[in-house]
Amino acid sequence: MEGKKKVFRKLVTQNEVFKILESMNFKIGTERISVVDAYGRVVAKDYEAITDSPPFDKSTMDGYAVIAENTFNADEDSPVELKLIGRIPAGSEPKLEIENGTTAEISTGAMIPKGANAVVMEEYCEERENRVLIYRAVTPGENVMYAGSDIMAGELILREGTTLTSREVGVLCAVGYSEVEVYRKPKVAIFSTGNELVNPGLKLEMGKIYDINSYSLISSLKEDGAIPVFLGIVRDDEEEIERMVSKAMEFDAIICSGGTSAGAGDLVYKVFDKFEPGVIVHGIAVKPGKPTIIANLNGKPAFGLPGNPTSALMIYKIFVSPLIRKMAGLEDKKDKVISARVPMRVNSAVGRVEYLPVNIVRGDEGFSVYPVSGYYSGAITALSETDGFIVIEEDKSFLEEGEIVRVRLFSDEIKPADLMIIGSHCVGVDVMAKFLRENKIKVKSINAGSSGGISAVRRGEADIAGIHLLDESGEYNVPYLKRYGLEGRCYLVKGYLREQGIIVKEGNPLGIRKIEDIVDKSVTIVNRNRGSGTRILFDMELKKISEKKGVDFKDLTSRIKGYNIEAKSHTSVAVSVASGKADVGLGIKTVADRFSLDFVPLRAEEYDFLILKSKFEREEVRKFVEILKSAEFKKSLPSGIRTYERTGEVVVI
Length: 653
Ligand code: AMP
Ligand code: MG
Fold this sequence. Notes:
By secondary structure, the chain is α+β, with helices and mostly antiparallel strands. It is built from 17 helices and 38 strands. Strands 31, 32, 33, 34, 35, 36, 37 and 38 form an 8-stranded mixed sheet that branches.
């Protein structure tokens, strides 16, 4: 280990990593290429013009070359008459000379003949045998582009670091360059590690997942001016990884993902450490992406990114992208930054800088940011519709409600939606969104739960909130809205019914008919998270049973296996039952059908839409209500969700 400078198994801070990366010098050199291939490449040196452009005084019009002074008396009523002494086409050197009283026909782009100092456009001239009548005076220099007036020999035409577009390529050609020196595009080897990985398109066997990272990284690398080369997937096997890394050594940089944490199958760092100086950073004090490896393999930069797809992409963006861009000669990509409000308290890990992806919503009080869910578990959709991310410093354990933060945007502009729906997620809303888009209404829906939706409506951030809150009284939504102090301020548009019930295995092998069977037959359940409508329904039913049986509610629930296992969505309840982890769970029929599970109906849940009075007359909102009531919408709803006689009814709160 003598002489090896590395920080090993000690978390390195974000700023230390930036410094380390900045001090690394992985120049890969330049190449000369034809201007034909120059588009998009980065110029590797300053370019000066080697000739004038244009190289001679040239006519910018079709017309007659003249001595301007000869035309001074010309006007529409009294033309000046000049003797025609020849014609000058483009592309050849004129042999004639213009003297007082003479002219020559000249084409656009042709060389101005000796003696002439202006061109009269042909519209103002009339040829009569060997004479030309000039109906308009011209000033010296009119319609003439002088040699070097565009670009003068010796002038700086392109700076090092410029990305070549059609315009710059044009400039190069104007002064005669047929080749240009550009930065070589870094060739970057990419591979994935993990026994569970399969290439997209192949059949997935149990326990396998598709390789996401290599493909999302390939796309990112292209944006950063590199040539990514995918080398494949390797198993969690030291020798296999070593063979792959040896192969990767012929490229300019190496990026792999997975196998970077301290688990038994995590062997990337061992392999990287067989090179000199080897691993430089193993573990960064950030979230997500702590298990990141940065290494120098005999002078080549190598990154071991976390396997979690969203972490891999975020770490690439923060740490890898700047280095690759530097190698490619590109400037740092400066994200656009805006200020926004945090609408609810957000907890954060102390001791690590956190990169939190957010959705941006425009409200009455400016922009607000909604954290994107599913991010830390690696849900790739968490990034696909995300507007940007905020950086929470390592010493902060939370962001306060109302705090102003800076948001780094993923694209150069925020595209506010025409209609913002925030609330509890429902497939019915997805169907609605499809219809709205067909009506050219840009809609965005954010899953913030029913109560999150109500708060967003109050702040003017959501135009509509989808809610389904069951009150102890048995009534849906209205009692909650009164309690939230929304009386007099909003309308509740009745939505649709979602059939709720007990999701059981196909054929209902345990013969579950009612909630009481769950208690009596001591089956294993998967519960829903506290605060969800389904959970409230379940607990209400259990309370009735506990009263009937004369047992304490707590005692009753402690006897139910899995009561404390909380699934966060209907789908995950269905997956638990389908995979056999649980015998039963409460949820909506829609997902039971999707997973071919059986369903015991309990009661229909009223999913409604909350809308502020002040927004109700908006055209997009009116369209929303119109679609809700339409026959097409009714037909498009999946099984288990149905409109009814109250659909579209407006309840004044
Ligand atoms: P690892 O870093 O290998 O411990 O992986 C962390 C998580 O990311 C695991 O759930 C892996 O299955 C997943 N994962 C690893 N590599 C990939 C990949 N290339 N594409 C998608 N998911 C991955
Ligand atoms: Mg792995």
